[in-house]
Amino acid sequence: MAQETFAYNIAEKVLMKLGSLAFQEACLVCGVESDLERLANTLSNIKAVLLDAEEKQVHNQQLTVWLGKLKEVFYDAQDVVDEFECEVLQKQVVETHWSITKKVRRFFSLSNSLVFQTKMAHKIKGIRVRLDDVAADRIKFHYLSERLENVHVVRGKEMSHSFARASDVIGRDQDKENIVQRLMHASSDSQNVSVIAVVGIGGLGKTALAKLVYNDARVVDHFELNCWVCVSESNEFALKQLLVKIISSISGENCNDLDEEQLQMRLRNNLDGRKFLLVLDDVWNEDRTKWMELRGLLMGGANGSKILVTTRSHRVASMMGGTESPYNLEGLPHKECLSLFVQWAFDEGTERQPRKPGGDWR
């Protein structure tokens, strides 16, 4: 049982590091952004069922073996992440402290050459392929296969809402300001309604950032209508379901009994000639046809209306963003990560002091 608990903990640690600024920068240099995104998505999906697998593996030897394979891949992934971080730190030390002669000498060393980048790119791609292969073996375990395939439905239970406390969000002040300015200024898009997509891997705080923006007093005053819709549980991007949610967010009406044509008419009546902000949080579906169908119904808003989208998928961001460039959310710097950890590790009102090496509180 401990083995599977370890697997879950390792998956969590790797996901946290994948979202770090240092690791993302290193992956950009090595040209493995797409592998990083796919690796993070697969890790997130598998992590969602690990604890369930832990309970069921007691009477299933095949499941125990499967979890052991996952553990091995997780450990290798953690090693690669650590190696990346170590390389970034070494470069920072070189830039800050080393003499020009030593810098030149190190430039030709293995760890700072294209050889290192190629080696790391090969490693992360290899881990991604291995993880995909192990994940595919879930077909042997019917109950796990169902849970993994319906992971977005499970995530729907954690449906987001628009309320946020600014004190709960750390290190995103500049990101918030950047997005607020983009919402309030004219778009290069010739249409009345333009789209801004915030994209980044899971765990970076896209939803929390969108909440801060949505509740900013300047944004509230700038738009005549403000509505928030969580899309994650609507994995198929079902138009009728989204229309019901949008109308409910605007007017509070319960429109579940209306057919799709009636919903479209109701939405047009609500939006016609009014400047609105619509947040579509956690979009996964990459079907351009479905998105264009919804977007066509939203074009009746007044000039300057905006749609703010949060997503993990660069394809979704590009598809929905139109002429607007996506806003790429990066990981937090080390200082802010530490502050976030302290905030979550201690209850409010608890004295937040680091431990001495001996274990006592300072």
From TrEMBL:
Residues 12-99 form the Disease resistance N-terminal domain. The keyword Nucleotide-binding applies. Gene3D superfamilies: 1.20.5.4130, P-loop containing nucleotide triphosphate hydrolases. SUPFAM superfamilies: P-loop containing nucleoside triphosphate hydrolases. Coiled coil: none annotated. GO terms for biological process: defense response. Keywords: ATP-binding, Nucleotide-binding, Plant defense, Repeat. The keyword RNA-binding does not apply. GO terms for molecular function: ADP binding; ATP binding. Residues 173-348 form the NB-ARC domain. PANTHER family: NB-ARC DOMAIN DISEASE RESISTANCE PROTEIN, PLANT BROAD-SPECTRUM MILDEW RESISTANCE PROTEIN RPW8. This is Rx N-terminal domain-containing protein. The lineage of its organism: Eukaryota, Viridiplantae, Streptophyta, Embryophyta, Tracheophyta.
